[in-house]
Amino acid sequence: MNMQRTFKKLGSLCLSLTVASSSLFQSLPALAASAREGLGVAAEVAYGSGSPTGIGMLVGNVINVVISISGVILVLLIVYSGFLYLTAMGDKTKVDKAKKMLNEGIIGLILVLIAYSASIFIIDRLAELSA
Question: How far is it, in rounded angstroms, from Cα 17 to Cα 60?
């Protein structure tokens, strides 16, 4: 009986996370295009109208790669913690470990999304100031 409630709660949590993440990640390509455009404008102002190369573009690309990789790692961590939770079979220590890992993964993913948003905001503002 307790296991059925646990699976129902986990199922509703997974459904909620799926709906929330699908609506959130649909807007990310537009944000990525905005960040690339801002980087291009900033590089053009800093280095001329040639192709955007140089240290500004390099730093922007490194930031995008690091944030993207860390986001993928955190999503995988959340999926793995869900797997641990499902296979715990009522073992209190395994359930606690899975819950702790899930909480840390969600907090980390939120921090990565905040960092991504902040970097887009800063890049756009720098592009506006230099234009």
Answer: 30
Place of tokens 């234009």: 131
What pTM was estimated for this model as a whole?
0.56
Residues with Cβ < 8 Å from 116, sequence gap 6 or more?
A: 31, 67, 71
Q: Under 8 Å CB-to-CB from 120, ≥6 apart: which residues?
A: 31, 34, 35, 38
109 close to 69: Cβ distance less than 8 angstroms: no
Q: Give the other-Cβ count within 10 Å of 66's Cβ.
A: 13
CB-CB contact of 102 with 83 (8 Å):
no
CB-CB contact of 101 with 121 (8 Å):
no
Contact 62, 41 (CB under 8 A): no
pLDDT in tens, 9-18: 777 766 666 6
